[in-house]
Amino acid sequence: MSQESFEPVGEETFARLDPAATAESQERISGEIASIHGVYQESVSDGAGAETQPRVDFAPYRSSLLRHPTKNLHHADPETIELYSPAFGQRDVHPLEADLTIQHNGEPIGERIVVAGRVLDGDGRPVAGQLIEVWQANAAGRYIHKRDQHPAPIDPNFTGVGRALTGPNGEYRFTTIKPAPYPWKNHRNAWRPAHIHFSLFGTDFTQRMITQMYFPGDPLFSLDPIYQSITDQRARDRLVASYDHAVTSHEWATGYSWDIVLTGSNRTWMENEEEEH
Question: Does residue 223 lie in a domain region?
Fold first, then answer.
């Protein structure tokens, strides 16, 4: 994955909202989240089904009202869409691309981690040969992107992008630096929990799916309207990795496990491609 061709980033960092919206308090946003969740929980108690995917027009996430589709969906020609979709490099995937800590001349700053897991279908069967791409902020909460002007340091030895192919048992493994939370412009003093973006491709670009992996125990979970746009707690929990001492390596890196389920009732939340956060 070349730096020159890489584009997706946490776009909520750069959301253009009315200044009045960005002056809204966290208390107001949290109150709106609690109200929506309360209505949802009542509906489930009355027999409604669980919502395992985010609401595309979740009001506390202000820019979601501007981003979600407003017209009927249409089938796209795979060959045509590939002319306009992001290009992540034209060479074969090399195993070293899964190590985000060795892409430059020096070592990046921050906590070295390993993230490992499996990609599964709804029946628990492994999905082999799946292309996974990841991108993330650095240990200071800064993306390598010209539009990210958050006043945090850029690490010259960390670009924050990588890719891998799943093995015969659906397994993947990335070595990287633990990202930091960062501010965004949804409301006053808004901060995103630390996360890593995952992109998965099927057989063509029209089958691209994007999700996010979070870290356990983050105090920002309850405050974040993007994470909370998934109204079902169990579905939200599936986005959070688990610390795994078996993945942790001696004097080198802490380890986290996180499986991605593509279909079924335990499906991992996937974003609309138009909303890459």
Answer: yes
Q: Does residue 51 belong to any structural domain of this protein?
A: yes
The domain that contains 126 carries what CATH number?
Answer: 2.60.130.10
Q: Is 192 a catalytic residue?
A: yes
Total number of domains in the chain: 1
Is 9 a member of any domain? no
- State the distance between the two ends of the chain, measured CA to CA, in whole angstroms: 19
Instruction: Provide the residue range defining the domain that includes 269.
Output: 15-72+91-275
Active-site annotation holder among 182, 214, 227, 256: 182
The span from the CA of 261 to the CA of 257, in Å, is 13
Which of 192, 236, 238, 277 is labelled catalytic? 192
In a domain, 66, yes or no: yes
Phi (first) and psi of residue 166, to 5 degrees: -70, 145
Q: Of the residues 61, 62, 142, 143, which is catalytic?
A: 143
Catalytic: 40? no
Q: Is 195 a catalytic residue?
A: yes
Are 227 and 221 contacting, i.e. CB atoms less than 8 angstroms apart? yes
Q: Is 182 assigned a catalytic role?
A: yes
Q: Which of 197, 238, 267, 277 is catalytic?
A: 197
pLDDT in tens, 13-22: 555 455 666 6
Burial 187-223 (b: 16+ CB within 10 A, else e): beebbbbbbbbbbbbeeebbebbbbbbbbeebeebeb
Query: pLDDT tens digits for the chain (277 residues)?
Result: 333 333 445 555 555 455 666 689 999 999 999 999 999 999 999 999 888 888 888 999 988 877 666 777 677 676 666 666 555 555 688 889 999 999 999 999 999 999 999 999 888 899 999 999 999 999 999 998 888 888 999 999 999 999 999 999 999 999 999 999 999 999 999 999 999 999 997 655 566 788 999 999 999 999 999 999 999 999 999 999 999 999 999 999 999 999 999 876 667 767 654 444 5
